[in-house]
Amino acid sequence: MDDLTPLRQLWLDRINTAADPAAIEEVRLAALGKKGEISLKMRELGKMTPEERQTTGRKLNELRDEIDAALRARKISLEDAALEARLAEEWLDVTLPGRPRPQGTIHPISQVTDEITAIFADMGFAVAEGPQVESDWYNFDALNIAPEHPARQEHDTFFMHRAEGDDRPPHVLRTHTSPVQIRAMQEQGAPIRVIAPGRVYRMDMDQTHTPMFHQIEGLAIGRDISMAQLKWTLEEFCRAFFEVDEVELRFRASHFPFTEPSAEVDIRCSWDGGQLKVGQGNSWLEILGSGMVHPKVLQAAGIDADEWQGFAFGLGIDRLAMLKYGIPDLRAFFESDLRWLRHYGFAAGDVPSLSGGLTA
Length: 360
Ligand code: PHE
Description:
Elements: H1 5-17, H2 21-32, H3 37-44, H4 50-89, E1 105-106, H5 108-122, E2 126-127, E3 133-134, H6 136-139, H7 151-154, E4 172-173, H8 179-188, E5 192-201, E6 212-222, H9 227-242, E7 249-256, E8 259-270, E9 277-278, E10 283-293, H10 295-300, E11 309-316, H11 317-325, H12 338-344, E12 346-347
Parallel strand pairs: 2-5
Antiparallel strand pairs: 1-12, 3-4, 5-6, 6-11, 7-8, 8-9, 8-10, 10-11
The chain binds phenylalanine.
Residues 176, 178, 256, 259, 289-291, 312-314 line the site of phenylalanine.
């Protein structure tokens, strides 16, 4: 048989130039597969004389083993190289500081609630809470709103269902945070200084009303707390909340069954260029209801009205959020539109505080 040297060279070259494991497999089949060149040559051994068969057979066996070994070696080195390349590419410096990008935002209502709470906490008000499904007594009677009082109709109340035959007055979704005044006074007595943020409900829906909205109730009861302190407290609050040095508040005589006297409070502002600015201009914007707590309310909460007196106020959180952050439509607050939330939301971790800056 012919010299096998050129054949050997040819196959070793093909093996060494194969670029990846798939190419190696192709070369293996072409050489050593059933119909591979070397295999076919070995089959021809049968036609040879015994002498020829002995020498050529041995050479062919050696060549087959050599090619086989070369294939295996090349395959391993290609696999190693691929692994090296991957390791080099996926290299990561674990000593670098992590910088996770926060997902999601704080809803403006949560942000503003925290801002307001921070301001009043700084003035010594603790946070009180009450249930959203409230008894008729806490929501109305205890606040000097008798069953026949017209204010009951004005509140557009949602009533809870009572079982057939149960003729006790139905529970309501609280129409304001004022019932928390009663609960807080019952629990803590006087003197007391609390705010109560929370959800309230009224059957109403347009650009500035939603059936659920948020209020913050304020209550301060002491031996000689007066309207003057109410006025100072609210002015300080507005200065801090709107982050302006000068604010002007207008106290307008009003009526609430649970305060006497009562006042609604407007803040001086301007709308120049469609932009709301607080503290200047010729417009007034109503932001809250307030007054001196009615003696009957103190009595209903078990507090001696001859010994104690104080003020209460209730302000709309949603309204304040719209004013401060220029949000035109209240309904959008509760539609859970991600684009709106990303636009008006606040970065997680921006906890408002008076020392750190409310809206920093
Ligand atoms: N509860 C009143 C409202 O919802 C607001 C208010 C609270 C007024 C406290 C006076 C005192 O309209």
